[in-house]
């Protein structure tokens, strides 16, 4: 199966909110090897601002499982706080949109 067909098949099996998520989110997910569930949770936080309880209800999982997914996401990315995670999402969106005025921002928020 060629790449375009694989992409189309992946999108057909993704939840609706993931099919329309930004290229910035997709790039971030690809860079850090996040699982499909981790990707879904991060996209829901970025696009809807869901709390852990709301994530649990929406994804039909326990709140403890949400916390485990968040811990795994932060471990893979190499950060230790939700604020850093949200900052990284915003930075990635700015990089993709070209709004960073040529300034490079690392995954931990330090300009280089």
Question: Summarize this, please?
Answer:
The chain is mostly helical and 112 residues long. Helix content is 69%, strand content 0%. It is globular.
Notes on the structure:
The chain has 112 residues and is mostly helical. The chain has a domain at 20-97: Response regulator (Rossmann fold, 3-Layer(aba) Sandwich). Helices cover 69% and strands 0% of the residues. The protein has seven helices and no strands. The chain has helices spanning 3-13, 16-19, 23-32, 36-48, 52-59, 63-77, 82-97. Helix 3 (23-32) crosses helix 7, helix 4 (36-48) crosses helix 6 and helix 5 (52-59) crosses helix 6. It is globular. Residues 1-14 have low confidence and may be disordered.
List keywords for this structure.
mainly alpha, 112 residues, 69% helix, disordered N terminus, single chain
Reconstruct the topology from this structure.
Blueprint: H1 3-13, H2 16-19, H3 23-32, H4 36-48, H5 52-59, H6 63-77, H7 82-97
């Amino acid at each position: 199966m060629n790449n375009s067909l694989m992409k189309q098949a992946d999108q057909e099996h993704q939840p609706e909110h993931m099919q329309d998520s930004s290229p910035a989110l997709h790039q971030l997910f690809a860079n850090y090897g996040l699982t499909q569930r981790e990707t879904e949770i991060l996209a829901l936080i970025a696009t809807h601002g869901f709390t852990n309880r709301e994530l649990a209800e929406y994804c039909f999982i326990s709140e403890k499982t949400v916390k485990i997914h968040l811990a795994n996401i932060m471990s893979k990315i190499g950060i230790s706080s939700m604020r850093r995670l949200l900052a990284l999402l915003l930075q990635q969106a700015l990089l993709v949109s070209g709004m960073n005025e040529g300034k490079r921002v690392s995954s931990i928020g330090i300009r280089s």
